[in-house]
Each structure stands twice: as structure tokens, then as C-alpha cells.
TrEMBL record:
One of its GO terms (molecular function) is transferase activity. The chain crosses the membrane at residues 143-169. PANTHER family: ACETYL-COENZYME A CARBOXYLASE CARBOXYL TRANSFERASE SUBUNIT BETA, CHLOROPLASTIC, MALONATE DECARBOXYLASE BETA SUBUNIT. GO terms for biological process: carbohydrate metabolic process; fatty acid biosynthetic process; malonyl-CoA biosynthetic process. This is Biotin-independent malonate decarboxylase subunit beta. Gene3D superfamilies: 2-enoyl-CoA Hydratase, Chain A, domain 1. Keywords: Lyase, Membrane, Plasmid, Transferase, Transmembrane, Transmembrane helix. Its EC number is 4.1.1.88. The keyword Transferase applies. The keyword Transmembrane applies. It comes from the Bacteria. Residues 1-188 form the CoA carboxyltransferase N-terminal domain.
Length: 278
């Protein structure tokens, strides 16, 4: 794989391999293990042998590393019981490694629309386990999140992204609690037109999220650019204060927002001005 090739165009398994030292990767519960959702066939949906979740253990620059990558092309990267359990368990085992003196790093490739509606509460419970596992692991080592595209990161998994020690995005990425179609359905097209792509990216795209201080690095769509950003994040070590712990700052900014006006890029800049990156 060339380092200047597109990271966005890679499938989950290829992304994981790109982030680990050559020859070091070993996939856990790979498709041949046959661990897949028992619920999708009951609803007439063809399951996938890895349930859309790739977990690889290996090394990055010789240091033990686990990469968890969501396959956005399967059910929109949605999280079900099995896929969520795979991610949560990988993070929990990484935390256990650190407690046992094995400094294992974690990198998450997040391409997901959130919970899998067909699995409802089972998926939500798995996402809650993922949140808890990230908070546990990030005490020992930076948990690096990557949102590249094309699915974006929404729903409960956007909270997982926010809990990461550092978050890396491309301009093509999108990050938000609710997806455009959900907002349009609940608030109306006048509030949020999900077909207006420039508007959508101006609100939830990687560039505005970076300028708002909600992510830590904005990179080009290249394998080398993503690898470099990951290494820079790891080199910073565990943050003195994680973004999710700085709730007083964000609550203060949100109280200043006038919900009677239509949100825009200019308004977002105004609300988060003190944190805008130059």
C-alpha cells in the first residue's frame, strides 16, 4: 500500500493494516471465526461474518497497539451487540495490558451512524460499554480516534469519539450527535436540509469541527498524513485534561447560543471563538 494513497477509500481491514507495522498485525475474531449477529437474519437481513467490526493487534513503531476499525459499508457502520462487544472487549483488554505493565496503545477508526436500529437496546448497551472502556483506557495511554469519511460518526458513537484523548479528521469527515436525516425528520427541512451537502459540511464537516476546537487534527486524505497525525497524537501522551472533562467551558458557550436563530458557520465561530485554531 502506498503511503500517498487515499485513506478514505480503504476498507476497515485495510485501514487497520495501514496503521500497524508491516507483518505485525493479527486479527482477532476474524471472519473465519464466524461470530456474527444472531438478530439480523431473523429480520431478513444478511449478516456479515465479522459483523462489520475489525479488531487487529500488532505494533506501531514497535509498541504494542490495537486498532479497531468499523466497516462503514456494512449497515452504515451501525453498532450491534456483536460488533459493539468486539470493540469494547478490545479496549478493556488493552486497559488490562496497561495495568499488567504492557503499555498497549489504541487507535479507533470510526465510520458509523451509531446504534443499529435492528438491535436497539442491545446495541445501546454495547455502546455504553465502549464509552466506559475508553474512559478506563485513556488513563494509561492516549486513545486516538480517526473519522475520515464517507459515513462520518454519529449517534452514540459520536460520544465515543468525544471521549477519545485525541481526534483526527479529514475535510470529508462529518461528526455530530444526530445525523442530517434525523434532524430534518424531527425539526423539519427548514431547520436542516439533509440534501444540502455544502450546508451539512459547513455545520458538521471536519474543517468546522477542527476550527471549533472539537477535534485535534485536520489532515488531508492520504495514508501518510493520517499516520503522521496518529504518531503526533501518541507523542503528546495522556492529556492533562481530556476534552470531555472540560464541560464547564462548553456549558458556558452553549448558554450563549440563541436557539431562535438559524445556526451557521459564522455562529459556530462566534460561540467557540476562544478555542478557534489558527
Amino acid at each position: 500500500m502506498r503511503n500517498d494513497s487515499s485513506f478514505i477509500e480503504l476498507r476497515a481491514r485495510q485501514r487497520a493494516l495501514a496503521l500497524l507495522d508491516a507483518g505485525s498485525a493479527r486479527e482477532l475474531l476474524d471472519p473465519f471465526a464466524g461470530v456474527m449477529s444472531p438478530w439480523l437474519p431473523q429480520q431478513g437481513i444478511v449478516p456479515q461474518a465479522d459483523d462489520g467490526m475489525v479488531v487487529m493487534k500488532g505494533s506501531r513503531h514497535g509498541k504494542p497497539t490495537v486498532v479497531v476499525a468499523i466497516e462503514g459499508t456494512f449497515q452504515g457502520g451501525s453498532m450491534g451487540e456483536v460488533s459493539g462487544a468486539k470493540m469494547a472487549a478490545a479496549l478493556e483488554l488493552a486497559a488490562e495490558d496497561n495495568r499488567n505493565g504492557i503499555p498497549t496503545q489504541a487507535i479507533l477508526c470510526l465510520e458509523t451512524g451509531g446504534v443499529r436500529l435492528q438491535e436497539a437496546n442491545l446495541g445501546l448497551a454495547a455502546i455504553a460499554d465502549i464509552h466506559a472502556a475508553i474512559v478506563d483506557l485513556r488513563r494509561y495511554t492516549p486513545v486516538i480516534g480517526i473519522v475520515a469519511g464517507t459515513v462520518g460518526c454519529f449517534g452514540g458513537m459520536s460520544i465515543a469519539a468525544a471521549l477519545c484523548s485525541y481526534l483526527i479528521v479529514t475535510r470529508e469527515a462529518r461528526l455530530g450527535l444526530n445525523g442530517p436525516q434525523v434532524i430534518e425528520q424531527e425539526a423539519g427541512i427548514a431547520e436542516y436540509d439533509s440534501r444540502d451537502r455544502p450546508f451539512i459540511w459547513s455545520m458538521t464537516g471536519g474543517e468546522i469541527r477542527y476550527q471549533s476546537g472539537l477535534v485535534d487534527a485536520l489532515v488531508g486524505d492520504g495514508v501518510n498524513a493520517v499516520q503522521t497525525a496518529v504518531d503526533a497524537a501518541i507523542a503528546q501522551g495522556v492529556p492533562a485534561q481530556h476534552r470531555s472533562e472540560n464541560y464547564a467551558f462548553y456549558l458556558d458557550r452553549l448558554t450563549r447560543f440563541d436557539t431562535q436563530q438559524q445556526a451557521s458557520t459564522a455562529v459556530i465561530h462566534q460561540v467557540f471563538a476562544p478555542e478557534v485554531k489558527k
